[in-house]
Prior knowledge:
Layout: H1 13-20, E1 50-52, E2 58-60, H2 68-118, H3 121-282
Antiparallel strand pairs: 1-2
Amino acid sequence: LRLEGMADKAHLAPIWTSLAGRSFQPPPDPDERDLGPDKNHKRTCKFTYTFMEPGGNFRMYSDTGLGALAKRAERAAQAEEVKAERARLRQEKMQRLIAEKEEKLRLRREMRQSRYREGEGAEREASAARIQSVYRGRRARARVEAYKEKRNEYAAARIQYSWRLHLDRADARAELDRRREGKKREVAATRIQRTARHRTARVTAKSEVERRREARDAERAAEQARIDDESAAKIQALYRGKKGREAAKSESRKKRRDVVARKQEKRLQERVTRELDRAGGGA
């Protein structure tokens, strides 16, 4: 059995107490052999649910067979169902105890009230009711008087507030009218000044435009004269260049013709000389 976590369960306290003092070491094995310097680590052929680690701690074997995971999940589900059933039973028991306690308190209260009514309770209740009624009436009248006084004070304060607000509004209206009138005057003065400035500016601008127009016309005339002079000079240069190129070309042609004529004359003389030499040799 796995004993971890059993100490906090009250219904398992007797079992835990009986098992607490026992030793869970495996029984001695007659065929045990020393497997090393650790004397507590022994080999045994008997099957047990626990085994001892080299440090001396006991651990439980885990099932590694086929279907072990399914069995473990089934056991976990069963444990959860048992836990839920126990919680439900505890809840039902608690609710039943609470209902019984409330029923006892209700019965005691009813019995106390019945005993009180059977004796002098009715007369005392009537006296207490009359005293309470008188006290409540006095308090209500005092509250009504205080309410009337506060209402009158509120009405007076409201009237004073309305009158002060009326005076403030009148002063504000007069100030607003004065400011509007001043603004109108400022706007009118600004318009008059703007009109005068515009008229002066138009006159000045007209004279300035005339002066700039005359200067522009003079500048354009001078520019046109300069362009005409440059154009005439360029045309003359082009014409002189053309004539010079034509003269140079004719001179070049003349020189080529003279060179060709001299070459032809020289070849002719050489030919004649060869013919004469050939004729003289044959004679």
